[in-house]
Amino acid sequence: MGSDDENDKNGDVSKKPKLNPSPITEAEIESEFSHHDPNIARLNNGAFGCCPSSVLTAQRQFHLNFLRQPDHFYFNHLKNGILHSRTIIKQLVNAQHVDEISIVDNASTATAIVLQQATWAFHEGKFNKGDSVVMLHYAYGSVKKAIEAYVSRAGGRVIEVPLPFPVTSEDEIIREFRHALEKGKSENGSNNNKVRLAVIDHVTSMPSVVIPVKELVKICREEGVDQVFVDAAHAIGCTTRVDMQEIGADFYTSNLHKWFFCPPSVAFLYARKSVNSVDLHHLVVSHEYGNGLAVESSWIGNRDYSAQLVVPKVMEFVNRFEGGIEGIKKRNHDSVVEMGEMLVEAWGTHLGTPHHMSASMVMVGLPPCLGIMNDCDALNLRTHLRDFFGIEVPMYFREPRDGEIGCVTGYARISHQVYNKIDDYYKFRDAINQLVSGAFTCALLSTST
């Protein structure tokens, strides 16, 4: 404990991880995730993530230490422990300063913090009524609601970037994004409006697509967008190396409980030092108000902070794998693409994106004969697979374009994490084949409810 305390006090950790001399075995992986329901083919890591037993044990110990003597824990361990976690995250994402990293509950909290600042800018006259926020059409649902709650009510306009799906190239996304920025500056016959904030996903949730985020941030700089916020809820542990210096956004958030093996719920919010101004605050005001967002976020009242304190233990876990987190990401990507190709070959369909625009999730076309005609059908099919086949996988409905007949309208978003086995995907393949051979359609589910 002494060496960890020293690292906490100095706000520094070794940049070269201490690798376990004995790499993790398949049996050890199974043991780490033995708390998962063995009867479920869990193809939905992207929704809630996963946490290994060794990390849960460490979290439990932090929780008990707090309950044993809360005052001692608060005054002597909590602040240093959170600083230790922030320092690890800072190095993980190549931020310049540890003060640029705040730990919050989840990406939704981070989004609200950024949008709160934009709201005050409208109210205080720094932004003009009619100035806009640009976001992707496939932005996460709660992010869209947050923009409505904060920006629209404050007098800002919201412009959605329409995105194609299936998508065949990054150029399609870049072209639509440029067009949306032009619209933001000239809509309503005025050329005086400004795009004050661009909200860009790094990996969209549904449908899942890796967005060319560095290119879009560069376009924002060229077009004079005030600030760029990257909602990267899935990125850490899911997609290629996340580097704040390379991406160049003003704000960037990612959950650590989705793909980085932390328990729920913990995320970080990066705020570039040049924009980390005094008017960026946590939503919950505590006695730390005014001491900078990172410090404000480290205490928002009496609550369980254990999920934020286990980041060092998570680093120990990921470094038991060959290549650490980068190795895990590559293997997950390669495996999910392989399983996706296996499924579309079995069903005579196609993937929703090129391989390089998938991360650790891929969109798999479902047989058209299943009759997925709307969002309700997609949800009913997902429930049916869970209840009758023991398969957990989210579904997406794509409305047919004009003139399309017999096209793929339903897609499954499959994930791959270290605990997944090939049998999970075979189970999914066989369940769909069984439904198809039995002349099943989603209309049957609608009439039975």
TrEMBL record:
Region (Disordered): 1-23
Transmembrane segments: none
Xref: SUPFAM superfamilies: PLP-dependent transferases
Keyword vocabulary terms for this entry: Pyridoxal phosphate
Keyword Magnesium carried by entry: no
Pfam families according to UniProt: Aminotran_5
Cited PANTHER family: ISOPENICILLIN N EPIMERASE-LIKE PROTEIN, L-CYSTEINE DESULFHYDRASE
Protein name per Swiss-Prot or TrEMBL: Probable L-cysteine desulfhydrase, chloroplastic
